[in-house]
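Figure S4 source data
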Amino acid sequence: MNRTEISSLIYQNLVENKAQIHQQFISNKEQIGFFYLDDLLPKEFALKIHACFPKTSETVQRKSLREQKFTAFQMNKYDALLEEVIYAFHDAKIVKLISEICDLKSVYPDDSLYAGGLSLMKKDNFLNPHLDNSHDKDRNRWRVLNLLYYVTPGWKLENGGNLEVWPNGLKEPQITIESKFNRLVVMATHQKSWHSVSKVEIENIRCCVSNYYFSDVPLLASDSFHVTTFRGRPNEKVKDAVLKIDNNLRTIVRKIFKKGIRENPHKYKK
C-alpha cells in the first residue's frame, strides 16, 4: 500500500469523525488543544506497520537528563512502508482537513522530517516535560501541530510510555493520553503546550510514527522563539534547576547562532 492509498484511509476516518474530534480539540483549545482518534487504519495494516519498525540498534539513541529514547529519520535505511506511512500524513487533503479540525490556516507538513520520523522507547525510557522547539530547521515557520500515531499492539496504560499534557502548567496535575495501539493523537504546540512521556515500565518497545506541521504564524500572539525547553517533574527539584540552566545556555547559543553551532542531524537527507 502506498502513501496515496494510506492517506485515503486516514482521510475517510477523519471525515467520519470530524465533528467529534473537532469538538474535542476546541474544548481544550484555550489550554493545550488536542484530539485523539482510535482505530485510525485497518487493524491488520497497523500490525504490519509495527512489524516493519527497525530494531533499536538500527536507530539513533538519545540519552540525557532530558530524555531517553530512540529515533529514526533517515527513512531510506528502513522498510519502505514506514516512509509511505509517514508521508501519507503530508497529503494535501490530510493537512487541510486536520487544519480545519484545529481551526488553523496556512499549515504545511515538513518534508525534511525535522525532529519527526519514528520514535521508539524501551524499558526505563522517558521524556521529561518540555516545550517543542518553536520553529522549523531554518526558523522560517512556526511549529503548530504535533501528530503522533502509536502502533505497538496490546499497549496498556500501566505499561507507561504514555503521552502527558500539562494544560495548567507543571504545578498542576497532568492529563495522561494512553499510547494505545492504532491511535492518532494531534496536539497543538506553542509556548504553553508542556508535554512529556511517562517512563516505560515493561520489557517492550513503544513505537510511534511522528510528524510536525508548521505555519507562517504562531498559534498564540504571545509566542516567541525558543529552543526545545525541558523541565523537571514536580518531584524533581534538583533536576529542574539543572535543566533550567541548560535551557538558558542553549537559548543564548541560538540567539548568537541562528541555526545553531552545528546543523541539527535530525532530518531526512534524501
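Figure S5 source data
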Amino acid sequence: MLNEIKEHRSIRKYTDKQIPKDVMDSILNAAIRASNTGNMQVYSIVVTTDSKIKDELAPTHFNQPMVKNAPAILTFCADFNRFNKWCRQRNAEPGYDNFLSFLTAAIDAIIAAQNACIEAQANGLGICYLGTAIYNADKIIDILNLPKGVIPVTAVTIGYPAETPELTDRLPIEAVVHYEKYDDFTTEDINKLYEEKEAREDNKQFIAENNKETLAQVFTDVRYPLANNEHFSEVLFGVLKKQGFLK
C-alpha cells in the first residue's frame, strides 16, 4: 500500500475494460472506512458509469477527455442531508446549516476520496482527481439530483490505465514539513526549494508556451488567475446558500 502511495500517477487515458463489481465494492468499502468527524460520515459518493450522464458531466469538468473515457466517475459530496433526516426522525434538531458544518463534511469527503484512490491503485486501476467539481458545483447538483444539504467537493475518474506517465514532481520534504512550530521561509529558502521544479524541462516549456517569464506567472496569470478565483468563489457561496449552509 505504501508503494501505491509513493508511485501515484494521475491517469488521464483509460482502456475500455470495465471495473468488476467486486473491485468497485472494495474501493467503496475502503472509502467508507476513512476517518471522519464524530463518526457521522457526513459525505456521499455518487458513482457514475452511464455514458449519457458522463456526457452531461463533461462540460462541468472543462471537457477533459478522461471524463467520458473513464469507466467510472466518483463524485464525493459533503452531505448533511442524510444525517439531518436521521436526527429529526429521532427527535433531535440538527444545527448544521452553517459554514463550519460544510467544511467538516468537505474534509470528511476528501479523506474518503483518498482512501478510495489508494484502494483503486492497489487493484491495478488508475485515478485522476477533478478539482473542477467544486468550481461547477451548481451544475453538478442539477445533473446528479443532489438535494439540499449536499454539495460536490471533488470527483475522481477511475479505470484501467492506458498510459504510464512519469511521476509528477514534488517539492522536497523541507518545503512542507515543520517541526514543533512553523518556520517561515527566507528568500534564499524559497529559491532553494523551487530550484529543481523551475529547472525541469517540462516546466520551462510551460513558461515558453504561455509566453511568461517565470513558472510562478504560469500559475498566477494562466492556471489560477485572480478573476477565476473570484468568479468561482462567488459561485460557491451561491451554492452554499442554496444548499442550506449559509444564510
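The chain has twelve helices and four strands. The chain has a mean pLDDT of 96.
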